[in-house]
Amino acid sequence: MDPIRNPYAPGAGQRPPELAGRDEQLAAFDVVLERVQRGRPERSLVLTGLRGVGKTVLLNALRSAAVRKGWGTGKLEARPDQGLRRPLSGALHQAVRELGHPEAEQAEHVLGVVRSFVEREAGADAKLRDRWSPGIDAAVVRGRADSGDIEIDLVELLSDVGGLAADTGKGVAIFLDEMQDLGAADVSALCAACHELSQTGLPVIVVGAGLPHLPAVLSASKSYSERLFSYQRIDRLGREAADRALVAPAAEEGAAYDDEALAAMYAATGGYPYFIQAYGKSVWDLAPRSPITADDVAVAAPEAERELAVGFFGSRYDRATPGERDYLRAMADAAVQLGEDPVGAVATADVAAVLGKKPQSLSPARDALLKKGLIYSGERGRIAFTVPHFGRYLRTQA
To answer: Less Cβ around it within 10 Å: N or C end of the chain?
Structure first.
């Protein structure tokens, strides 16, 4: 098969040629945009799921839907070592520009508030290079979004942005990836701001994406967050959608799969969108002709697994210390010994039993892995990998 015409796209956040299995989420978001634009009450949205299920891809698709409706949009990615002020100001700067408010003075005033919000992070005595926000030429608006209390400032900032959006008859949507990595103060402030906006009816929504334990992170910050957001679990694709993700792009290039090949691909990928793209690319490159057969899948599978071992699994495994790697392998072994779901949670006590140690002695390794985003805890006393098939990879490494 011609590798130049290979239609598959295994990349971080890269949109696949066929966004299969997400029609329901896209249709629901169109309803949210229309309701907010008409002043109807609607909740902000949170997408949760394991890595590799396409949360970032879906987040980008939802943003494109908002852009098509004339909304102002901005996107940022949370990082555990960075506060919210600077990346959010950049996202809002872009959103205000996209809105294209007809009154330049009003838009400039709001941009001045955005600049005031971000410069407050540096402090009054900071050097110019630390206070300056690139691209925002508007004069700082003193006394607005600059109190130093992130909760007060964020409410004021988003209220001003929402008022500007309301003037245009459109809305503003902020897309926030890796939302679970926000600091505790920033999570609390974001929840408070969304709560305030929902009460005032201003056309601003937040669309967040994060790991499965994100709802617990939000709930721990504000008890009302359970009612504040609409939560959508993004999971692996069913067989029909997984087949469509492979078949539709191939058909565009005049190629096809036989039924046995599609069954073999689903068995290998488990329906996880990133794996579908990775295996699809390898199978296409190595298959001699169309239609692609189960034998072609068997030949190409080792190449796909080598690529995943380096780029998807290996890059994460390399971040762990030797002690943390022992903990990860023990998680994989515990799941096998107990017959647990390979992508489900295992008890920390079972992991400790595999290692022959007391659970308390393993707390440092577990906590470090949680901070590194390699595992998560959806419920007390249980942990799971954030990456599907990671346990299988660890057992092959062993």
So the answer is: C
